[in-house]
Amino acid sequence: MTSKQKKMLVRIILAAALLVGLAFAPVEGWLRLALYMVPYLLVGYDILRKAFKGILNGRIFDENFLMAVATVGAIAIAVCDNTGDYTEAVAVMLFYQIGEWFQAYAVGKSRRNISDLMDIRPDYANIEKDGALERVDPDTVEKGTVIVVQPGEKVPLDGVVVSGSSSLNTSALTGESLPRSVAEGDEIISGCINLTGLLKVRTIKLFGESTVSQILELVENASSRKSKSEAFITRFARVYTPIVFFSALALAILPPLVRMFLMDLPAAWDDWIYRALVFLVISCPCALVISIPLSFFAGIGGASKEGILVKGSNYLEALSETKTLVMDKTGTVTEGVFEVCAVHHNTIDEARLIELTALAESASSHPISKSLQRAYGKAIDRSRVADVRELAGQGVVARVDGHEVAAGNEKLMRSLSVEPVSCRSPGTIVHVAVDGVYCGHIVIADRLKPNAVRAIEAIKRAGVEKTVMLTGDNRKTAEAVAAELGVDEVRSELMPVDKVSAVEKLLAARDRKGKLAFVGDGINDAPVLRRADLGIAMGAMGSDAAIEAADVVLMDDDPLKIAKGIRISRKCLRIVKQNIVFAIGIKLLCLILGALGLANMWMAIFADVGVMILAVLNAIRALFVKNL
Question: Which domains does the chain have, with CATH numbers?
Answer without folding.
Answer: 3-115+224-297+571-623 (no CATH), 142-205 (2.70.150.10), 313-333+449-550 (3.40.50.1000), 336-447 (3.40.1110.10)
